[in-house]
Amino acid sequence: MIGDEAFATEAGKVVGVWNLRFSNSKRISEAKPCWRQQEDGSSIEGQLKYVVEVSKVEFQTSPDAVLVGEKGQLSTDQDGFCKVEITAVEIGDGCDLVLGEARKVVDWEF
To answer: What is the Cα Rg of the chain in Å?
Structure first.
């Protein structure tokens, strides 16, 4: 049974996680061009500016549940959702320690 916290891979596999920790968080500003449609049907070209919180993440999961390089979405009971790329898996006794990089958009404006 999967608890409140889970990692869903891009391939659709969902695994339960526990002992979730974030560290070394930093915020970076990014931007990309975008268009917004007005009520009258016209569109406005502009820039979408956003702030991304990037953190190191670690959690435990069942043995062989995830692989290095897998990408997906981590759902947490405290902080919602973030995108994660797995950077290392340390094999343990009965569970694996998974390390990765988490990214979450925390603010944006047009």
So the answer is: 17
